[in-house]
Design goal:
about 325 residues; alpha+beta; 2,3-Dihydroxybiphenyl 1,2-Dioxygenase, domain 1; nine-stranded mixed beta sheet; eight-stranded mixed beta sheet; 6 helices; binds fe (ii) ion
Amino acid sequence: MEIQASHVFTSRDLAKSREFYTEVVGLLVSDEDRNTLYLRGLEERAHHSLVIKHSDEPSACHRVGMRVFEDEELDRAKHHFERLGLPCQWVDVPFQGRTLQTVDAVGTPLEIVATMTQRPRRDMDVQVHRGGAARRFDHYQITVPEVAKAAEFYTSIGFRIADYITAGEHAVGAFLHVKDTPYDIVFVERDGPAFHHCAYIIMHIQAMLRACDTAGVLGWPDCVEYGPGKHALGHSYYVYLLDPDGHRVELLLPPIVYMGRCACDFGCDANYACDGMLGIASPKLLVFQPIAISRMGDRKHSRHQPTAISREIPSLDCMTSRRVGSA
Ligand SMILES: [Fe+2]
């Protein structure tokens, strides 16, 4: 399974949303009608990674999307989810192939597809690059009351734990990935399920500053909520923006990648830069032996100290979350 397509936000003013996502974030409009915007990053060939639907209701995130490589994997996913007693249904979604809607073990509405209408990559067409020139979708962050339950469920469907945060023996944050990136989906303990943010990769710090400058010029100086700053995990520079409806979007640079293995002093196997403090477990270990959540604080499975509440947590406390699937 790959995290790629496509999450669905609501907007009370689609024109404002269009301006924000094209001029500030730098996404491309793949298609649009009176009530819906389909957006993608500059290097994305899939038709959309973000769908925004007009609604006069309070803003919401309807669902988060994931993609599998083969169509037949959708049938296996449906069988797996149904075996766990989770509701599944096939739905018709414009520009998408066979689409499965379901719910994860902590109540997050999911949409899973294998195929989608294709559009040309525009990453080399610099004349169309705007604002942050967002290139590709990177990750979601969801808040849930039961982080351990969420992480256990996602490891059961092929995700690996890249990092975690504990308060004593209690898991309060889990970073999971299926691609060779620091994380594809993050769960943090709080009420939920609620959508905290989505993130798009941008290529350089100038693009981040241009996104912030553009937001100011277009009348949204307050949309820069947090940052720019630098993450611990992956060492990426980031900025968090709030769109006109209050949905949070992170723009971040690619992680610092070392040829060979992690450059920390702890001998971990990550091929991106961990900072030697956050307890990155060995991806190799987790690939072949999905880790049980009860082991998250077990030092036998990590050469690092069990992680105390990270320095990133205080920043989350100032951020509100949007309930997922409330519309
Ligand atoms: Fe993030």
